[in-house]
Write a structure and sequence with these properties.
Strand content: 15-25%
Largest sheet: 7 strands, mixed
Number of domains: 1
Shape: globular
Distance between the termini: 39 Å
CATH topology: BirA Bifunctional Protein, domain 2
CATH superfamily: Bira Bifunctional Protein, Domain 2
Number of helices: 7
Strand order of the largest sheet: 1-2-3-7-6-5-4
CATH architecture: 2-Layer Sandwich
Structural class: alpha+beta
Number of strands: 10
Helix content: 25-40%
Length: 261
Amino acid sequence: MTLYYEDVPADDNEAPQLPPLLNAVAVPVGHDVHAKAIALAAASDVGTVFYSEAVDKMHIAVVLGPEVAVAEASQMLFAMMIAVGDAVGALAPPEVAVSYQMPGYILLNQGRAGVVRMTVDPAAGADGVPDWLVVSAELRIVEDDAESERLRQNSVHEHTSLSEEGGGHISRTRLVESCSRHFLVWVNRWQDDGFRPLYDAWMHRLDNAVQLVCETDATLAWLGLDEAGGMLVKRDGKPVSIPPNALETACGTPMLAKPQH
C-alpha cells in the first residue's frame, strides 16, 4: 500500500486533459511519437501535443512555433527536461530523486529512465528563425523482465523506471497532463524572464556523477553549461560551446537503450 495516489484515477482510454493552448493528439502504440510530430509539424497547430497510447511509458512530443533564432529557440530542450522533473516531483514519492544528464537524459535515483530530444526545422539553417520546433520527452513507467534483461545486455549504464523507484502507481495519462502543464509554465517563464530561470532550475538537478554521455566516437570532456544553454566541453584539447540544437550531431541521438538487432 502506498501513501501516494491519484485523487482522480486516470482512464488511459481517454485523452489527457490539457490546459488551454495545448491540444492532445494520440499516436498508436508502436509508432515513434517524435518522428510523427516532425512529419506533421509544418501542418500542425502550435501547442499540439502528440502522445503515445502505450501505458508502460509516457512519450510526448510538442510542436512549437518559435519567433526567435535557432540558438535561443533551442533552449526549449531545458524547459522540457525541467518539466519532466517537476512532473515526477509532483506525482512521485519524495524519495524519487530526479537529475539530468547531457545530452538529454532523465535520471531517477541515478538510473536512466527517460530522455528528452529536440528537432529544429532544418530550413532555418544555423541562424534563422525556424517555422517549427519539436521537443519530446520519454519516461519509462514500467518495464517487463525481457526488456530489463535487454537493457542490461546492451548498455553500460544503469536503467530504471518509475515502478522500480516506487512510482508505479502513476499513470501514463497523469504524466502526460503534468508534463504538459509544467512545460507550459516554463515556456511562459522563459518568455517573461529569459533563459536564466531555466538555467538555474536545470543546474540544480544536474547529475554530478556522470555529466556527459556520448554515443559517438568523439572525445568530449564536460566543462559546464553557458548562460545561453550551450554545452561547454573540451574537444581535441580546446574548449568549445555546443548549442542545444547541435547536441545530437556532437553526441549522437540520446536513447534509453541501443536498438535490438
